[in-house]
Structure formats: C-alpha cells, structure tokens
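pinging the channel bc i need a second pair of eyes. not urgent but kinda urgent?? the chain im working w is below, pasted from the shared doc
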Amino acid sequence: MAAKRKTRHPAKPREDLSAPSKWRLQHGDIGAAIRAADPETGTPIMQRKVVDTLSQMLAHGSISREMHEAGCIFRTLFRSAALDSIATSQFVRVAASSGDWLSVSQLDARRRVLNALDVLGGIDSPSGSIAWHVVGLEVSLRAWSAQQGWNGRLVSAPIACGILVAALGTLANHFGLLPRSNAA
C-alpha cells in the first residue's frame, strides 16, 4: 500500500519588521527611514520620524518656521509641566515621599503655559482650546474639530485650521519669535 502524499501549503510571506505595521500606518504619516548608529552600542539602526500636524502644516506652507517653533515651544512646556495624559511609573522612588509634589521646573512650565493660554484668550476660547488639545495633547485637527463646537454647531476643518494658524501666530509673537512691528 502506498503512503499518502502530504499536500504542501504555500509558505506565508514573512512580515517585514523594518517597515511600520499596518496599525501604525493608519494612525498618521511616517517619514522615510534614516540609517544611524545606536549611541551606546554602535550597532546600525533605522529610525523613522512620525510626521505631526505642525510638521505637515510647515511642509505645506500653511505656517511659517516661527509659528512651527512657537508650537514646539508650547508642546515642550506642556510636557515639562506634566499636563499631558501620559502617565508612567517613576524609575527612582524617594523613600517617604508621596510623589504629589511638583518640581520647580514643572511649576515654572505650568506658569508659562498658563501665561501663553492667557494670551490666547484662555482655555475656553477657540485659540486656547486648540493650543491645549492639538498642540499640547497632540490630538489631530480633525478629531478636535469634530468634538469642539460653538452654538451647537461643529467646527469645519478649514475653520479649525485657520484657528490653529491664528493661535500659532499669537504664540510666536508671545514667545518673541516674531519681530515687533511699529504700531501707530
């Protein structure tokens, strides 16, 4: 009696681990891979930079370099002030401390964020809200415009983009990145 032949299943194609996953690609643009060396070990690595809203607007010419820099400063202050929703465990725990105390740099960053929001009209204003959510929390402009509304109406994407451009211009002026014009 002859032995049965096993049917060969075609081999599944291997996933390219150097490319972003399908899940990552659906959550925003990713820049081209850049070859570099790991600073600690010297082994070759590939780095990819995620393209954020401000970088996209700068690339399309919607905002100036000064406005982009103002957005980056606000985002850095926002993160330094520990206002973002990312929570991590502490690597170094100090004995007998509650962990509720803010450092001096966090308090200073919170003061600077509050001053910037005051210049924008407060967090309840359109400019303050878009700075808090889109620049600080890095929510997409589309998601912010869909959840934000005034007088019972949603904000359209072009109007949301205009609000962001105005907010970034005000922040650039506030942070001293734009030369002051001689107002008459």
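so The chain has a mean pLDDT of 80. and Residues 53-84+103-174 form one domain. — does that match what u expected or am i reading it wrong
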